[in-house]
């Protein structure tokens, strides 16, 4: 559930962690042995407060010499009201852009919500990643990977297609006992003018009604199920999608419900789609099933095992208020370390309660070879701020000559980057940066 309100009332304090990590060697199934020993430290920095609404990963690109970002939310939402907060702004570098005033943000032209029962965009959308078509030298052809939320009211079940949701035994949502939980799915939009106007291309991946987790078992006040909170990166001929998996790994049956089986199929997973299929993505993506990218876009995949929290360490199903799991991945390629870096939040209670941010590494440049998309190091604590909910961490470029010359974004970074994260407490929520993350070490 993405929301602009907080849901806890606990004391506030800050805690800075400076840590080092010896991350994993690749498994013997791969064709080569690659080792990485990255170190990192958080350096306190002048606070940077973002001045527009953020409730997701920050999507951004360079269009020529302009750094452009796409925060916010757009569309129909029965819980929080219809939104027109998905906007864009730009500048000569990342820090200039992030410092823009709220009045500097512009609404792009978005596809209208379709009436119930008709094809098109239903529910609200958030842009989580923007992939820039490398074949367009102007830099203006963009594909937005969006998080989408719906309810039985906005996307009712259609027995002819199997799409949509039934209201029977629907779990409680975040705003109170009579509010419904959302279902998340992931789609693609396209722009040919640098993000000033967008066209919906369809759903990337989703879970159908049979995998929704209903009453009386779903009590976490999060999702009824589905897939969401993604981060997407290109590797070879594919766009790889890292996302939260919140559905039941099979058909949910209240009489045979097994919490251990549920948690075994959650939470950070990976799917992929050919870059050539982004103009017509429906049905084209494949999800990792434990052996390869074999599961269909609406089928049952398998999560990344190293990113799951074992039961003896507090892990549990996402539908339980006592289940603990990592979620909200933000993935980037680090040119200094020559490896992938993933940041993620950690839910430890209902409504995504959790005050910590964690980090993981993957040394494999090619995510499509053998099991290399799965070889992430065990997450380590990066930052903890008791009293806050910390959501949507990301690493962002700065205004250094290197970042500008290399046109770095949240998808590609160097030795130093700004750490941004949404800080939520009862009085207010802010998307801000208080630290620089500096890497050291080598890969070979």
From TrEMBL:
Residues 1-22 form the signal peptide. Keywords: Signal. It comes from the Bacteria. The keyword Signal applies. This is DUF4185 domain-containing protein. It comes from Spirosoma pollinicola.
């Amino acid at each position: 559930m993405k929301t602009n309100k907080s849901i806890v009332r606990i004391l506030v304090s800050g805690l800075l962690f400076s840590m080092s990590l010896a991350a994993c060697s690749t498994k013997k199934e791969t064709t080569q042995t690659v080792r990485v020993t990255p170190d990192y430290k958080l350096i306190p920095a002048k606070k940077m407060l973002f001045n527009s609404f953020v409730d997701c990963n920050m999507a951004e690109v360079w269009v020529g010499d302009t750094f452009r970002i796409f925060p916010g939310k757009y569309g129909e939402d029965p819980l929080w009201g219809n939104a027109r907060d998905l906007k864009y702004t730009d500048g000569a570098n990342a820090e200039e852009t992030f410092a823009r005033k709220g009045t500097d943000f512009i609404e792009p032209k978005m596809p209208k919500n379709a009436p119930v029962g008709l094809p098109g965009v239903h529910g609200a959308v958030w842009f989580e990643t923007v992939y820039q078509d490398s074949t367009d030298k102007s830099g203006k052809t963009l594909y937005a990977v969006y998080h989408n939320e719906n309810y039985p009211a906005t996307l009712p079940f259609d027995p002819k297609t199997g799409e949509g949701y039934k209201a029977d035994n629907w779990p409680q949502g975040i705003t109170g006992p009579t509010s419904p939980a959302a279902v998340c799915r992931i789609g693609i939009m396209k722009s040919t003018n640098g993000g000033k106007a967008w066209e919906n291309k369809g759903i990337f991946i989703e879970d159908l009604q049979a995998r929704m987790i209903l009453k009386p078992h779903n009590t976490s006040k999060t999702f009824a199920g589905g897939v969401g909170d993604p981060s997407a990166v290109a590797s070879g001929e594919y766009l790889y999608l890292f996302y939260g998996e919140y559905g039941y790994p099979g058909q949910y049956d209240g009489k045979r419900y097994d919490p251990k089986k549920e948690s075994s199929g959650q939470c950070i997973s990976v799917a992929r789609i050919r870059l050539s299929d982004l103009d017509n993505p429906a049905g084209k993506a494949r999800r990792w099933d434990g052996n390869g990218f074999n599961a269909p876009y609406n089928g049952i995949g398998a999560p990344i095992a190293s990113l799951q929290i074992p039961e003896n360490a507090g892990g549990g199903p996402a539908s339980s208020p006592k289940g603990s799991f990592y979620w909200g991945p933000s993935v980037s390629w680090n040119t200094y370390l020559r490896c992938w870096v993933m940041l993620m939040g950690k839910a430890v209670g209902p409504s995504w309660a959790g005050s910590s941010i964690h980090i993981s590494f993957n040394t494999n440049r090619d995510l499509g070879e053998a099991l290399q998309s799965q070889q992430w190091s065990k997450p380590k604590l990066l930052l903890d701020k008791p009293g806050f909910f910390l959501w949507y961490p990301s690493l962002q470029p700065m205004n250094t000559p290197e970042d500008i010359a290399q046109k770095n974004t949240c998808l590609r970074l160097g030795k130093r980057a700004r750490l941004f994260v949404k800080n939520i407490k009862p009085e207010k929520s802010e998307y801000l940066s208080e630290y620089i993350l500096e890497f050291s070490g080598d890969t070979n």
